[in-house]
Every structure is written in structure tokens, then in C-alpha cells.
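Record type: ASSEMBLY
Status: queued
Input:
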Amino acid sequence: MGPTTKDLARAAGVSLATVDRVLNDRGGVSLKKAQAVAAAIEQIGFERNAAAAALARQRSLRLGFVIPKTGGAFLDKVLLSIQEYETLGRSEMTILSVIRIEDKDAHKAARSIANIDANDFDAIAVMATQSPPLRDALLRLAARGVHITSFLTKQELEGDVDFVGIDNRAAGATAGRLMGQFLGRQKGAVLPIAESLQSRDTLERRLGFDDVIGNKYPHIRPLPTLETYADPDRARKVISTALKARPDTSGIYLLTGEAAGPVSALRELNALHGNILIAHERTSVTEDALRVGELDAVISQDPGHLVRSAVRIMRARCEKRRTLASQERIRIEILVAENL
Amino acid sequence: MGPTTKDLARAAGVSLATVDRVLNDRGGVSLKKAQAVAAAIEQIGFERNAAAAALARQRSLRLGFVIPKTGGAFLDKVLLSIQEYETLGRSEMTILSVIRIEDKDAHKAARSIANIDANDFDAIAVMATQSPPLRDALLRLAARGVHITSFLTKQELEGDVDFVGIDNRAAGATAGRLMGQFLGRQKGAVLPIAESLQSRDTLERRLGFDDVIGNKYPHIRPLPTLETYADPDRARKVISTALKARPDTSGIYLLTGEAAGPVSALRELNALHGNILIAHERTSVTEDALRVGELDAVISQDPGHLVRSAVRIMRARCEKRRTLASQERIRIEILVAENL
DNA sequence: AAATTTTTGAGGTGCGCACCTCAAAAAGAT
DNA sequence: ATCTTTTTGAGGTGCGCACCTCAAAAATTT
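Status: finished
Output:
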């Protein structure tokens, strides 16, 4: 057993009450004594007994996931992971809940956030496209004591906000590397397809992709990104046009998390085989496509890992613990048919 | 808060003492009452409060990792992960320790296991090549109440032994897929290199590899596996001979976890560029080789993940909890330069 | 029916911490 | 020097469970 608060009090030359005040930020402690306690913590290597703290605190941590209302298969998987964790997390004194927000319009999103009662949550993980009104709403929540973590999409508030998610630029670069390797010496054009170019993730992925292709595989020519606007008809039309315009196309890169639309469009156009196809996010659609050989690789991030990481970070923030950063980096996974 | 033991006792119509006897296997409970408690657990959805249990139990779980004495960079990473977890796990009431065993000889290994005092451990995770004497030694430990988990190498004892590690056949298949894709339409031979063919892991990987190559990329010819016996000189010699014998070699597959030897041999032979090279396990050697483009891909399993998973499983066994199996499958990771 | 064994219940203790109250001490203000 | 404010300490309570003892009740044997 490590040293207890009692040992800490003795080592610091203060009472248990003062130790408690320092450990739990209750204020009303002179700088001198506070420093004495801090020094003693270092010296004797005190570590709060998590089990005892959880038991005594008795109050479950209320963690919220703020998630857009509209979203496809990947988001569903994230939601499922949250649910899974809920049943498991009950014994760990955490209550998870999901808050769906409007995401079409920055102001609506901000209003959804503003509607969150700061008393209901100890921390929230926010997935939402950045915007000034949203930022203000988040800052107000933060001011009322809710810890904010950005989830999948970066938020820039004051100070350092933890971020849970992959590095999209590196993800795009990974896709570029695979595309280059899969195409080999073969010359040709690569067609990137996205839902929209508005999203920051898409842009970052494209940047990473172009970077690798340009530097390592200069014989491959990346075409301008096609936008589907999440509309199957439009997808089929623009893809068809693009493929006709560039018959030398030999690779297709689906930048967007939602691969279902483009994949079925490509299937109808008979463009699935013969072309190297790389997509993002593991969903039932991409899994199946990998298995039958329509897709060659999928770049993905594990939703379960995302959720667990977010929960760990939020808990650490609430309990004023430091997190083991190395454990929290979300890996960029590469999936092929054999390692599903 | 979920229901407590008090609620459980009331629901089952028994006393707290009986509930305690059932929950902690103290015996001396009639079948009838035991079933009543079990039924009540289901009915009211009782879940032991892990924090309170850990606190009351007071006794840290003593978990052991049984690891071969000889081992390369990958094993070092595993050991490092165990150490990392140790500092972190102290607050979680677990004490990890590592037991190094002889591994050259099955009898020596068995004797090392036999030397383990069953009173010192609640559970151990064993990494050792299977053999009848080893099996006996493990069974004796199990009989004395130590929970056994197989770690990286499967152990077949009585009943079901948990296994922590990747599916080596699938790992080999993944390597085969990448090799096939990277080589593209290019015909040629692929040279698999291993330390020795004795190890089960190596065999399984080779099987998976051949399976994919044979079925999906029949124009590629896998050569017989080269054995280096972990000897750099021998490695250089056999590789050189093999490459001369088959000038059409265009891919090399390093089956073994230790890539350092073969990689430097290949470097001296100037066989690194021009050939597609795939290896196993992330180490500083494979990382560097990936970055500079000598290696094209690495198939790996995360040591940190391995250790955490093993600990979770051992704890669950000791505390008679069921584990969330989905969370415990170790992923087969694919690494390229961009997703390190 | 008596003696034995097995099963059950009542009750207590302590794990390490969070959170609370109240009084005493120290520091600062007037 | 008195009053006010801030800081400190002593002490208590309870979280849910593990683990213990002892006596009473029930089931089994003799």
C-alpha cells in the first residue's frame, strides 16, 4: 500500500483537514502550507487511492458527449460504443449521456450548447464544427465549471483543450502512402471524393494525401476533389463525368467518413474493380467491401478506443489527475480484408 | 448508484453474511440459498462496486508475467509496458511482477515455473513454448489457486485458458495481402525469412501468408522459409545465396519478431531497395527502417495494449467477473511510415 | 431422542478518502 | 489593544464491501 493522507499530513507537518483542503481545492489555505503539502506529495510519493476516493465521493461523474444530430454509420458506431461503455462504466462511478445538437447552422449548434445546464455535467466531449458562437457557448459552460474536451473535431478555446481523435493530416498521408504503394509503378490519375470541402477534416486529409503523393509518387496525378454533398444522384453524376474525363484514373480515394454513397455509385458505374479504392472509417459497408475485394484498404479509428480515451481524459480532468498521454493517442488503423 | 449487497440480501431473502459467502465463494451455503442469491443478482441487476471491493479487500492483486529470459527488442517493449503499468497500476490495487524463465529447454522452463510460489501470485500470464513438462508445472500452479492466462503463445491446459495476443495466422495473411498488393501485377518470387521454423508462431504466420498469396496472387511464388538461427553471419550467407539463386525475387517477408538481424544483412547486400519488404513488430529498428523507406510495412501488435489486456483479464478472473471479450481482442496493426 | 454436523444470521471492524462542523489559533485591520 | 478575517486543527460520519466471530437454527447422523 502506498502512503495515505495521514502519512501525507504527517510528512507535511499539517493536519488532515489541511491536506484535504489542498487535495480537493477547497481554498482557504496559506501559500506556505499549500507548498508544504505539495512538496510532501512529491517527497513521499503520495498517490490518491482511486478506489477509496471513488467510494467516498459517492457522486458519480456525469460526463456528456455532444454529438451532431445528423451523422452516418461511423457516428452510429461511436454512439454504440458510448452505450456499451455505459453499462460497463456504472461500476466505475461514471454516468455517460449523449446530447445531440443541431449541426447545420452554427447558431443553432451554439444554442443547443447554450441549453446545456452546467449543473448537469462535470465534463463534456464536444464534436461540432468550430464557429465563433459555438466557441462563446462553450466558454460560458467552461466558466461554470464544466470541463470541455474536443472530440473528433478540434475546438480552440482559451488555454489547452484536450483533443481526442486522430491526426487527419497523418490519416490522409497514410492513405496517400497506400495508394502510392498499391499503384506501384503504374502511372495514372487518382480521384479524391468527399461529401463537401467545407469540413476541416476533409481539407486536412487532402493535404496529407497530396503531400505524400507529390513527394514520393510524383508519377501519380491527384485530381481535384469531387463533392457529392451526400447526394447519391449527384455522386453518380459527378463521378461518372470525372471518370470519363480522365480515363487514366486508376485510384479513387474516399476522403469522407461516409463511404456508402460513393461506393454504391461506383458499383453501378462498374468502377470498383480495376481501380485501387481507399476509404475512411470502419463501417459495415466498408467491411463488406473489403471482404469482397471492392475496397483495397480502409483507414480508420476505433470508436471504442475513442470513447474510452475521451472518458479517461474527462475523468482525469475532473479529478485533477494528469493523464498518461502516450496511452491516449488514437491510432490511425489500416484495415485490409485479413485484419478485420 | 446501483443496488448494494444489502439490497441483494433483501431481494434474495437471506442475510448479508450469506450474500457474502456466495459472492466470495466461502462455501457452506445450501444449494437453495445459493441459487436464490444468484437469481436475485440477475433480477435486481446487482453489480459489485469495484471501488468498495478494492478498498475493503485491501490486498492488492499480485499478477505475474512469466517471460523468457532471452528475447529481443519487442520483448523489451513488452517489459517496458509492464513497468509503465506498474507505476500507474499501484492506485488500482495491482502489483505486477515479471518472472524471467529459461526458455532454451522445455525441462528448464518447467522447472522455472515449478519454482514459482503459488502463495506469491493470484494470477500469472505465461509466455513460453508449449511442452508437456511445462504443462504439468502450470497445472500444479493452477491447482494451488493461481489463475493462468496464456500470453502471446497459446497454452492448452484443462478447460478454457484465456489467451492474450494476436491471431498469428491472420497476421501472416495480412502480410500476404500487403505483399500481393504492393507487388501489383509484377511477377516474381517472395522470400520468407525466420529465425527458426520450430516456433508455432512462425508456422502459423507462414500458413496465413501462403494462403493469401496462393489464392489471391497466384503469380507470386513464395520460396521456402530461410532460417537464420538468430545468427547474423548465417543470415547474411543464406540470404545472399537465396537471392542469387532466385534473381526474380521481388519481395521479402520477415516472419520473425526480430527484424534487426535480417535487415542489416539485407542492407549490406544492397537488397533493401527494389524489393518489397514486410516485417513484424514495431521496434526502433523497424520504425527507422519504415521512415527511411527500407521497410514498406510492419505488422504489429501494441505491447501496451497487450499488457493492459492481460491485466484486465487476470483481474477479471481473480474477481470472478466476466470480461468484455470484444474489448480484449488484440488488433493486428499495419504500420507504414505515415501512421507511426 | 440425543448428539453431531451443517447452514444461517446478527453483529462488528476497517479499508482510505470526501465532506462536514465547530472551535481555536494566527494574521491582519482599525 | 480590540475587532475582524483568514487559516488551521480536531473530530466525526459514511461510502460499499471483505472478513471475522459467535451463537442460534436447521438438517443430518447416531
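Annotation: Chain B has three domains: 5-47, 56-165+303-330, 168-300.
Annotation: Chain B has a mean pLDDT of 88.
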